[in-house]
Amino acid sequence: MIGRRFLVLIGLVGLLSTAHAALPAPYAPIVIQPLVDGKTHEFDLRAAQQRARSEGKWLYVYLGASDCAYCRKYEAFLAANATELVPHFAAKYLVVDLRSQLSVTERQLILRTEAHRLPYADFQRAIGDQRARLLVYPSVWLLEPDGKPLMQMPAGTGTFQTVAEQLEILRLEE
Question: Which of 45, 118, 157, 158 could form a disulfide with 123 if both were Cys (CB 3.0 to 4.6 A apart)?
């Protein structure tokens, strides 16, 4: 009996920690939880691609981790600047929130689109992403509905820390 209660408690703690990893609600993110099979964590973007195609929008795909301090910082930036940023996001993008954990490795993290089902680094190569192949949180991709990247994205902490920088990205200014 104690073992069962302990497992239920651990499950609830896991759900609560995942709930903290989130893009702010004003951005109306499409939340995609991974399909976990014990070895991999697969994020299926196909429904988001179909919706983007039907709405004539691009995808702003955000990969965050529930236990990532840099992710919390970026999410707090988005929340603090929602009034100014949301109209720019909403005009052209469907925001997709992929929720992961720092313990998920690049070989375990699988991204599935209409064209690919690949581990993180292989996905990066397949779409022509020139950034480092190491799994970095947070990661952002701007994709056409068919999964092709709209531009090469900057990488590393400190990216998108001002409204002006975020707007440059949304306007596809390299």
Answer: 118
